[in-house]
C-alpha cells in the first residue's frame, strides 16, 4: 500500500528525469523537453510533486547598490590572448570549462597559465595555484613544465583521481586558482558508475563548483570532446559553469584558436590565437602572417581576403588550381572551406560571369590550415578561381571580400571599415568591397577602394577577356 506524504497528504508519484540536463517529468517521454536529447529520460524513483520547506536565512538579501563588486574584479592570467577571450581575465570564484580534442594543447596552455598566474610578476601578492592531474603523474607534468618553462614556487601539483582526495588538497592549500585536468577523470565514491559517466561528471562538477563559490577560488576545468566535437558528459555541465571555451586546431598546423561559446562575465565574440611549438604555446597578437604565402612575384589563382574571427580581423589567402579533367564529371575539391558553398560559387561564376569551367577539375584551398566559413569570403574564392581560369595574377597589394548571391550580386558584409584598416596596416593599398548603403566608412590615406554591385564588375576590374567588353580600367600595382 502506497504511503502518503505527512506534510501534503498526497501519495508521491513515480518520476522520470533526464540524465543529460536533469529535467523532471511525471511520465516517461522519448525526448527531453529541455535539452531535446533522445533516450535520456529515465525512471528516477523521486516524486516530482515534492517541495522543499523554507529554512532560516543565514545572510539577508542586499540592495544591489550595496553589493561590493570589487571582490569580483578581473585577475589577469598572464596570457594576454586568453585574457582577450575571457573579457579581461579570470573572475574570482568563476568556473571555466576548456574543451578540445586530444592533443590540441589544452594541458600545455593551462600549465603555462598556472605558472604565469602563480609568479604574478606585476604584483607582490603571493598566489598559490593547485594543479590536479588525473591523466598523468606529477613527474610527467613536471617534465612538460621544464620543457615549456612553466615552473613557479607557488605552483603545486597533485595526481588524484578521487574527488574526495582532490577536495581535501583544496581545503589544505586554499589556492587562488585550481586547475583540474580533466573533469572526466575524477570520480566520487558516493556515486555509482565509472569515471567519465553522466552521474560521475555531474557530481564532480557540482562539488568543484560549490567549493569554488565557497572559497572564492577561480577554477579551470579541462573537458574532453566526443567524435562530433561536442563536450563529453551531461549537458548540465555547460549550464553549471560560468565560462565555456572551445580550443580548436588542426593536428598538422601549429595554429590554435580559443573561443568563448558561453561567458557570464564578458563577450563571446572574441578569439585568442596561439602558436603551439616544441617549447610551449605562445600567444599571437598578429597571426595574419600565418595565413598568407610569401611569394616574390604574383601568381595566378590566388586572392587575399580579410575574415573576422569574432571581432578580430585576420588576413587569409585563398588559392585555386584548374586542371583538365580525365573523367566525364569534373572534380570539385575544397580544403579549409565549405565544399558545398565552393561548388555553388563555381556554378555562379560559370552562369553569371561567363567563365567556362566544364571539363576542368577545380581545387580550392586556404593557406596555413585556416578554416574560412564566413560568407564574406565568397568574392575572394570566386576571384581566385577566375584568376586561375584567365591565367592572370591578382595584384599583390589587393584584397577582396563580400558575399556572392546566386544571381551574381555582391552583398554587404559586416565590418567593412575594420577589414580595410587591417589590410592598410599590413601594407595593402587596394580593396574590392561590396557596395553598401552606409559606404566603406573612413578610408585610410593612400588606400583605394572600389565598390562593386555584381560579380561581373569585379571581373571587369581585374581581368581582360576578349569575349567581354571592357567597361572599367583594370587596377594596377
TrEMBL record:
InterPro entries the UniProt entry points to: AAA+_ATPase, DNA_repair_RadA, P-loop_NTPase, RecA_ATP-bd, Ribosomal_Su5_D2-typ_SF, Ribsml_uS5_D2-typ_fold_subgr, Rubredoxin_2
In terms of Pfam families, this protein maps to: AAA_25, ChlI, Zn_ribbon_LapB
Q: Which organism is it from?
A: Arthrobacter terrae
Q: Which family does it belong to?
A: Belongs to the RecA family. RadA subfamily.
Can you quote the domain comment? Answer: The middle region has homology to RecA with ATPase motifs including the RadA KNRFG motif, while the C-terminus is homologous to Lon protease.
Write down the PANTHER family for this protein, in alphabetical order.
DNA REPAIR PROTEIN RADA (PTHR32472), DNA REPAIR PROTEIN RADA-LIKE PROTEIN (PTHR32472:SF10)
Is Hydrolase included in the keywords of this UniProt record? yes
Q: What is the protein name stated in its UniProt record?
A: DNA repair protein RadA
Please give the GO cellular component terms listed in this UniProt entry: cytosol
What is its biological role? DNA-dependent ATPase involved in processing of recombination intermediates, plays a role in repairing DNA breaks. Stimulates the branch migration of RecA-mediated strand transfer reactions, allowing the 3' invading strand to extend heteroduplex DNA faster. Binds ssDNA in the presence of ADP but not other nucleotides, has ATPase activity that is stimulated by ssDNA and various branched DNA structures, but inhibited by SSB. Does not have RecA's homology-searching function. Plays a role in repairing double-strand DNA breaks, probably involving stabilizing or processing branched DNA or blocked replication forks.
Q: Name one GO molecular function term.
A: ATP-dependent DNA damage sensor activity
Amino acid at each position: 500500500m502506497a504511503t502518503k506524504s505527512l506534510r501534503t497528504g498526497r501519495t508521491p508519484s513515480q518520476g522520470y528525469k533526464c540524465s543529460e540536463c536533469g529535467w523532471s517529468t511525471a511520465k516517461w517521454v522519448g525526448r527531453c523537453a529541455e535539452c531535446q536529447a533522445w533516450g535520456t529520460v529515465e525512471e528516477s524513483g523521486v516524486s516530482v510533486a515534492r517541495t522543499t520547506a523554507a529554512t532560516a536565512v543565514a545572510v539577508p538579501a542586499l540592495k544591489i547598490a550595496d553589493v561590493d563588486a570589487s571582490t569580483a574584479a578581473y585577475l589577469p592570467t598572464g596570457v594576454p590572448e586568453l585574457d582577450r577571450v575571457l573579457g579581461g581575465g579570470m573572475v574570482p570564484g568563476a568556473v571555466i570549462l576548456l574543451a578540445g580534442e586530444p592533443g590540441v594543447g589544452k594541458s600545455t596552455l593551462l600549465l603555462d597559465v598556472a605558472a604565469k598566474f602563480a609568479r604574478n610578476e606585476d604584483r607582490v601578492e603571493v598566489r598559490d595555484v593547485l594543479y590536479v592531474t588525473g591523466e598523468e603523474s606529477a613527474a610527467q607534468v613536471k617534465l612538460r613544465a621544464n620543457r615549456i618553462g612553466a615552473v613557479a614556487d607557488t605552483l603545486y601539483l597533485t595526481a588524484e583521481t578521487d574527488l574526495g582526495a582532490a577536495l581535501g588538497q583544496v581545503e589544505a592549500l586554499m589556492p587562488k586558482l585550481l586547475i583540474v585536468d580533466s573533469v572526466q577523470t575524477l570520480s566520487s565514491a558516493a556515486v555509482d558508475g565509472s569515471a567519465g559517466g553522466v552521474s560521475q561528471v555531474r557530481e564532480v562538477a557540482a562539488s568543484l563548483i560549490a567549493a569554488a563559490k565557497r572559497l572564492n577560488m577561480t577554477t579551470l576545468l579541462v573537458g574532453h570532446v566526443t567524435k562530433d566535437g561536442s563536450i563529453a558528459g551531461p549537458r548540465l555541465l555547460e549550464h553549471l559553469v560560468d565560462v565555456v571555451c572551445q580550443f580548436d586546431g588542426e593536428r598538422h598546423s601549429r595554429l590554435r584558436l580559443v573561443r568563448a561559446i558561453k561567458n557570464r562575465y564578458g563577450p563571446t565574440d572574441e578569439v585568442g590565437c596561439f602558436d603551439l611549438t616544441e617549447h610551449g604555446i605562445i600567444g599571437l597578437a598578429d597571426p595574419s602572417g600565418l595565413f598568407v604565402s610569401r611569394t616574390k612575384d604574383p601568381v595566378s589563382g590566388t586572392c587575399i581576403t580579410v575574415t573576422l574571427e569574432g571581432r578580430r580581423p585576420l588576413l587569409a589567402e585563398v588559392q585555386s588550381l584548374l586542371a583538365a579533367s580525365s573523367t566525364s564529371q569534373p572534380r570539385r575539391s575544397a580544403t579549409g572551406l565549405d565544399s558545398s558553398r565552393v561548388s555553388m560559387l563555381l556554378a555562379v561564376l560559370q552562369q553569371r560571369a561567363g567563365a567556362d569551367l566544364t571539363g576542368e577539375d577545380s581545387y580550392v584551398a586556404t593557406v596555413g590550415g585556416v578554416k574560412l566559413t564566413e560568407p564574406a569570403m565568397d568574392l575572394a574564392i570566386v576571384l581566385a578561381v577566375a584568376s586561375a581560369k584567365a591565367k592572370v595574377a591578382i595584384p599583390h597589394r589587393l584584397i577582396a571580400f563580400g558575399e556572392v548571391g546566386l544571381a551574381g550580386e555582391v552583398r554587404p558584409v559586416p565590418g567593412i571599415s575594420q577589414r580595410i584598416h587591417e589590410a592598410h596596416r599590413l601594407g595593402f593599398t587596394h580593396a574590392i568591397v561590396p557596395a553598401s548603403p552606409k559606404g566603406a566608412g573612413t578610408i585610410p590615406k593612400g588606400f583605394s577602394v572600389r565598390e562593386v554591385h555584381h560579380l561581373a564588375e569585379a571581373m571587369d576590374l581585374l581581368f581582360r577577356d576578349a569575349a567581354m567588353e571592357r567597361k572599367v580600367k583594370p587596377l594596377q600595382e
